[in-house]
Amino acid sequence: VMQCSAPLDVLFLLDGSYSIGKGSFERSKHFAGKLCDALDIHPDRVRVGMIQFSSTPHLEFPLDSYLTKQEVKEKIRSIVFRGGRTETARALKYILRKGFPGGRNSSVPEVLIIISDGKSQGSTMMPAMQVKERHIMVFAVGIKFPRWEELHVLASEPTEQHVLFAGDAEDAANGLYSTLTASVCSTTAPGCKVESHPCELRTLETVKELAGNHVCWKGSKQPNVVHASLCPFYRWKRVVLKHPSRCFRTVCPDPCDSQPCQNGGTCVPEGLEKYHCLCPVGYGGDIHCAPKLSLECSVDLLFLMDSSAGVTLEGFLRYKAFLKRFLQAVMGQDSPSSVGVAQYDDDVRIPIEVGQHKDAFSLMKSIDALNFGGGGTLTGRALQYIAQHGFRSTPALEDVQEDLPRVVVLLTDSKSQDPVAEGAKYARDQDLFLIGVGSSFLRAELTEVTGNPKQTIVYSDPQDLFNRIPELQRRICSVDKPEGCQAQSLDLAFAVDASGGVGVDNFLQLRDFVRSSFLHFSINRDVTQIALVVYGSKAHTVFALDTHTSNSALLQAIDQVPFFGDSASAGSALLHIYGDVMTVQKGARPGVNKAVVVLTNGGGMEDAAGPAQQLRDNGILVFVVVVGEAQRDMLLRVAGSPNYLVHISSFEDLQHYQDLIIERICEEAKSPVNLCKPNPCMNQGVCILGPGSYRCECHGWEGPHCETS
């Protein structure tokens, strides 16, 4: 963004002597390329040339050879280290005699950039002075551990603005641009200004240091007499010396200074004027992290917050922040839901009645005013109290409608000091829909409160709480909705890893997961059909799509699932499903959404990306559920999208992700269907789409699907 754009001839004088060495020479080349980024290289603006010097100067390329930035940088990269003595004075005399090779004969400003360690053989003072008398602007750039005194002799005045250090290439490029801007370049970038600040120039010197004394023997004028004495012992030591200086750098306003990202978003600058926001979960409705969720369901919603000593003040403040972020994310101006907040410890209070606030701003102010209690944790008593008093319908609270579902969200981080079962059952008997949100160690107690593990939301650490906002929104709006895809047509195949990598015990957990998943679907010919495939190195169909027509039949059949215990090949399983399961012959229905769910520990996925893409190309969704550690990049290639990949840390946690997986399947299964994908025509028949229908064009076969010879 910051580059000098005036007519300018720039000549690099690159030290290629043995004191630099090949490694530092390569760093010098890299640095020269970085400096080119601060120059607008163009035939009519900045031109660049380069001379490498050691015992003798050598012209690498003149200023009129390469006229684009890319060409110049490529040529610099190809320059070869020559080696020799450091004859800086000889190189300067070459420039005094020859001028800038390929330059514009002083009709434009001339800039000489010397990149060296400043350890010349011989004095550079006279030729350096003569170069500067010709009105050539000289920058001296130190490389490795330079001799700064010589570089100050070489550089133009004021030396603070013309002596740079190649160790920090970005900073030095800024320094070059800043100095050029003050003299030859047109203007600084909009809104930018040159500022000075204290800095240090470092070098490495060898110094003589007294190490101690040792006994030595000295002769005497007297014959045959020797005297013992103490003699000093010295050693040479390399030390880093720091030279205080001032640096001049261009400082530009950060586009993030105005804090454009809302709702806890993080601003990431892109150049001088642009930026983008990294938004927290539940936000991202626009570039500034506006809410992107919405609570579109109509419910009366009451948050029951634990404010006992067990939560601590810090935890209570975190719940307030979570509550505000959730409501900001999901509550729009025209949200059909009414919200209230209660808090409990030894006692229960309802500081914000359901429906009391008509706008989000006044609701947020009331949440800010909530105070920490600090008493005991009587969750059971609080639930009973809320069931009796939490949703009182009064004329003042006319928004609380008797016929709307009533939802209570319990927020707690401490174990209850009284039994919760009786109070929770009483609340559920009053038709309250209970959702529990708390730390993972409270999972059992929260499930006892809600009466359903699907209505329990746990988080692993305080920050993870805020990641649960979308899940809470789905749970609130799942009240009174049928579970799974009960009223939705779907052909679904489970592919279960039965390899030795999974192990028998974990395989049985995968089997139980599939068994409980059946309960989310209405199994019959008109709604959902399910097939089951298990695989090791080869795949085996336990039952096809049209084998069983009821939930009870599926539950009995799954007990016969075999465990193989050999190596895994998910690719073979997906190819098997494509060619032998999702076919009209095996019960697949044209015009019905189709999905495959792969359950695995991540082993044997190397050959699965191609077959998975083949399924997707034929209109079949592929969901990948992986338990344990696995390579995410490879899994994404199989799933095709992060939306179709669920990564679970342990087999014990698998059951807690069932609702999420089923919801995703059912949501995606609503997409429009191509009647010819996968091809319903058998025996190489060609499927031809019509308006709302299809037909099979058969060759040597007959029947609606070319099934009869």
UniProtKB/TrEMBL annotation:
It is found in: Secreted. InterPro entries: ECM_Assembly_Org, EGF, EGF-like_Ca-bd_dom, EGF-like_CS, VWF_A, vWFA_dom_sf. The keyword Signal applies. GO terms for molecular function: calcium ion binding; identical protein binding. SUPFAM superfamilies: EGF/Laminin (SSF57196), vWA-like (SSF53300). Its main location: secreted. It comes from the Eukaryota. One of its GO terms (biological process) is calcium-independent cell-matrix adhesion. Keywords: Disulfide bond, EGF-like domain, Repeat, Secreted, Signal. Pfam families: EGF (PF00008), hEGF (PF12661), VWA (PF00092). One of its GO terms (cellular component) is basement membrane. Gene3D superfamilies: Laminin, von Willebrand factor, type A domain. Residues 9-180, 300-476, 491-665 form the VWFA domain. Forms monomers and multimers. This is von Willebrand factor A domain-containing protein 2. It comes from Calypte anna (Anna's hummingbird). The lineage of its organism: Eukaryota, Metazoa, Chordata, Craniata, Vertebrata.
